[in-house]
Each structure stands twice: as structure tokens, then as C-alpha cells.
From TrEMBL:
Pfam families: PHD_Oberon. It is found in: Nucleus. Its main location: nucleus. Residues 127-172 form the Oberon-like PHD finger domain. It comes from Davidia involucrata. It comes from the Eukaryota. One of its GO terms (biological process) is maintenance of root meristem identity. Keywords: Metal-binding, Nucleus, Zinc, Zinc-finger. GO terms for molecular function: zinc ion binding. This is Oberon-like PHD finger domain-containing protein. GO terms for cellular component: nucleus.
Length: 172
């Protein structure tokens, strides 16, 4: 008799990304409560493998199309609410935020980010700059950057190129 955890570990080791990428697709497309149940059944090793594969998708320029597809789907999901995000599994929430923002830092434990902050970052209600995390718009600012609520506050975003480089705190 074999436990499902043993089977799951072996399948992940043998199949690698070929097995994990369809799961990532399910995370992006499936209802949050359905995936939350699945996350509760996953082993820590499986979740770590998922996060590792997502980091690869984010960092690998050859997989940029895949990341853009996931981001477009997540951007257009009208069924995701703050309440639903707060009820989701913590790892699921980290993955959703990392995919939507394209920032692998949300998958790392180095940052102490509450689930409510993650949910608000996902919904563009809070600045996604990990050193800022101000509520958007900052101080009820009505400038064109803050009003768009595109994930950064006017303090963190370059007004010229509308980008922010997390690594060096400069525009790219």
C-alpha cells in the first residue's frame, strides 16, 4: 500500500515542470475555493516545487509569453474578491500575487507580508513595492499615477516611464 503523498512526491520528481505547469494553469483559472482545498491536500514539497516553477516562469525570458497569459487571465477575473482572497490558502495567495505582479519576491519567506496585505496587493489596493506597501491611492492622491491603481503609488513609480525596478529602487 502506498500513500498518496509518496505517489505525489515521486510524480513531481519524475515529471517536473511537465506535471507542475498544468497545476499552475489550474491555480490561475479555477475558482479560489476549489484550489484552496487542493492546496490543503498538498505536501510542503509539492508547494515548494510549484513556487520554484513559478519563479522560473517569472525569471525566464523564454517563458515571458506564459507569464503574460497568466497575468491577462488574472487581470480579467471578476470573481476574485478581497474576502475570497483572505479565505484562500496562504501559498495559493502568494502564488497568485507573484504571477499577477510578475515578482518572484512574493514567493520568498524573507518578507513578512500579511495575508491581508497580499490580498490588497493582488487587487491593486496597496502598493506592491515591498518596502512601501502604502494603501492606494496614497493620502487620497488624485494624480494620474495613483488614480490608475496599477499597483504602485506615485512615490514608487517613475512618472516618466511608469515602471519600478524592485532590485535597485529605480525606474528601468
Amino acid at each position: 500500500y502506498r500513500s498518496s503523498n509518496q505517489d505525489e512526491k515521486e510524480l513531481l520528481l519524475v515529471s517536473g515542470a511537465d506535471f507542475v505547469e498544468p497545476i499552475i494553469t489550474m491555480i490561475v483559472y479555477e475558482p479560489l475555493h476549489v484550489m484552496a482545498r487542493r492546496f490543503n491536500e498538498m505536501t510542503g514539497q509539492s508547494v515548494a516545487c510549484l513556487k520554484e516553477t513559478i519563479c522560473d516562469i517569472i525569471l525566464n525570458t523564454g517563458k515571458r509569453w506564459q507569464l503574460c497569459t497568466f497575468q491577462k487571465v488574472l487581470q480579467n477575473r471578476s470573481d476574485i474578491t478581497l474576502e475570497m482572497l483572505l479565505k484562500s490558502h496562504r501559498a495559493q495567495l502568494e502564488i497568485l500575487v507573484a504571477l499577477k505582479t510578475g515578482l518572484q519576491e512574493f514567493l520568498q519567506r524573507n518578507y513578512d507580508i500579511s495575508s491581508s496585505d497580499l490580498a490588497e496587493i493582488f487587487l491593486n489596493l496597496r502598493c506592491r513595492n515591498l518596502t512601501c506597501r502604502n494603501l492606494l491611492p496614497v493620502d487620497e492622491c488624485e494624480c494620474k499615477v495613483c488614480v490608475q491603481k496599477n499597483g504602485f503609488c506615485s512615490t514608487c513609480m517613475c512618472l516618466v516611464c511608469s515602471k519600478f525596478d524592485m532590485a535597485s529602487n529605480t525606474c528601468s
